[in-house]
Amino acid sequence: MLLICLALALIGTYCSICWLYDNLRTPVSLLLHGLLQTLLPKQTFTEKYGEWAVITGASDGIGKGYADYLAQKRMNIVLIARNEQKLNRVATELTRKYPIRTKIVVADFTERQEALYDHLAQELLPLDVGILVNNVGLSYERAMCVDELPRKTVWDLLTVNVASVTLLCHMLVPSMKQRRRGLIVNISSLSASAPAPYLTVYSASKVYVRNFSMALREELHPFSVQVQTVLPGFVRTNMTAFVATEHKERQVSRHLVQVDDYLRYAGFTIGKTDRTCGYWTHGLQYAGLKLVPEWVGLFVMKTIYKSLRVQAVGGVEKDD
Q1: Residues 81, 106: contact at Cβ < 8 Å?
Q2: Catalytic residue chosen out of the listed positions 69, 117, 202, 286
């Protein structure tokens, strides 16, 4: 009996240490980085990484927030999205606020053609790209089952969320390795921390981004190129508009983090930690999901998105 109790205590201690490491590594990294900064000479972002920051999905939401944050750091900004009018508006805002240069590249990442990436290579490879923010993403218009998605939507989800991240890294990593400096910020999602029924394809694509980023980080570490994985929860953007709309009567919208607030936290972690949820409440949610067994996380995600689905279609849906 004593041996059983000892074994259970050791297992509990081991599990606790693993959970603490997984969830405290980010604040500890930030603390250690802050201490090192007091001892080492400070470098600007352009000195540390390079002259230009490339941001996809830069016309709205988190992408626009990263553009503004990095422009504050006096980096020149390449804004990539499919709406030229919005891109011009963001570029004008940035150059009015900060002494930087901007470049806009119109690209629709739903295109499944090599010509798109040939065009991007022509625009980006001549530049000293120090930071790449792979932010462009596509989600559902509302929570729904996989078979309810139009085939084109499934293709677009995979093309935008998976292919764009992979191919842009494939394009820009060689020059970063050659310069032996650079930073890649890949935007995954909190939904990658547990399976998310009724958001199945989206959450699975974000698992790809998470795993791809973590593996790429190890490949690039010997070349002094950093990779950061960002796992945001609900942020008030166009992609999360359906959450606020469908749960308006439950006031869920008040729990959506404003982009400016989100970037105040997420921006602070740039170059200081290899993984972040970007906002403290999202970090707590991530820690909670990692504390429970996978089936509990699955149940939580199913409950959240099934309720969104019921709100969208009306009535009550029962499991078959």
Answers
A1: yes
A2: 202
Residue 262 falls in the annotated catalytic set:
no
User: For residues 306 and 320, what is the distance between their CA atoms, to the nearest angstrom?
Assistant: 14
Single pTM value for the model: 0.85
Which of 4-18, 52-66, 174-188, 295-309 bottoms out in mean pLDDT, i.e. has the lowest?
4-18
Better-predicted residue by pLDDT, 314 or 39: 39
Of 226, 288, 235, nearest in space to 261 by CA:
235
- Using CA atoms, how far residue 67 sits from 55, 59, 188, 295, 319, in Å, is 7, 9, 18, 38, 44
- Per-residue pLDDT at 31: 67
pLDDT tier, 315 (very low <50, low <70, confident <90, very high otherwise): very low
| Helical packing angle, 114-124 and 164-179, nearest 10° | 30
